[in-house]
Amino acid sequence: MERLQKVMAHAGVASRRSSEKLITTGHVKVNGKKVTELGTKVSKHDHVTVDEMPIQTEMPIYLLMDKPRQVVSTVHDDKHRKTVIDLLDDEIKERVYPVGRLDYDTTGLLLLTNDGELANQLTHPKYEVEKTYVAKVEGIPTNEELKHLRQGVRIDGKLTSPAKSKLLSSDEKRQTAIVSLTIHEGKNHQVKKMLQAIGHPVMKLKRETYAFLTLKGVLPGEFRELNPEEVKELKRVAHLDK
């Protein structure tokens, strides 16, 4: 059983505070009866409507996946490509969706959940949740070029926030390098565009970390549920720990 306003927030109806206002002002019904008490609790079997529109009352679930290449980070794909939802086994009955996106050819850590409130907070630029990527690039970046990434580079006409960048290894013969880049923004194709901006196009890209979470113990194409302590910490990172 969960508090009604929490279930509404998880379903992405509104923030918890706005959901409370919807309840107290008479917009919400549970099993056909108007509810205005904030202490009301519901289960996944209860039928909840907001202004007569039903919402999902599934209990929240949080998954960590190592997304492989040639898989799209969406629930459905018009081009009929494989999606991250296709990689979930039949044990996951809840309707989850990705938190943010990874490109079709980008691999690595992806979160999936049905907690709309947490997903919105994690992807909001205000909270500056750090993500670390490891990229194989053409050429070998100089210290000065990496410094540009740390200071911010201009992509799509706007300056990026300062990033953490590091040269992990280089191959003089093949003229390629492995670079680590940590950012807290989430613009479209941002990492690729940042590295392109300093003259080193990305050949391969993988997201290694999301906040404090890593891919340890999870193979490409596999996933696991976050444990209660991880969920609690993730909510703290997203400023939902009150």
UniProtKB/TrEMBL annotation:
RNA-binding S4 domain residues: 2-60
Statement: the UniProt record of this protein carries the keyword Isomerase: yes
InterPro entries: PsdUridine_s_RsuA/RluB/E/F_cat (IPR042092), PsdUridine_synth_cat_dom_sf (IPR020103), PsdUridine_synth_RsuA/RluA (IPR006145), PsdUridine_synth_RsuA/RluB/E/F (IPR000748), PsdUridine_synth_RsuA/RluB_CS (IPR018496), RsuA_PseudoU_synthase (IPR050343), S4_RNA-bd (IPR002942), S4_RNA-bd_sf (IPR036986)
GO biological process: enzyme-directed rRNA pseudouridine synthesis
GO cellular component assignments: cytosol
Similarity field: Belongs to the pseudouridine synthase RsuA family.
Domain of life from the UniProt record: Bacteria
GO molecular function per UniProt: RNA binding; rRNA pseudouridine synthase activity
Sorted UniProt keywords: Isomerase, RNA-binding
Species this protein is from: Secundilactobacillus pentosiphilus
Protein name in the entry: Pseudouridine synthase
Its EC number(s): 5.4.99.-
Gene that produces this protein: rluB
PANTHER family: PSEUDOURIDINE SYNTHASE FAMILY PROTEIN-RELATED, RNA-BINDING S4 DOMAIN-CONTAINING PROTEIN
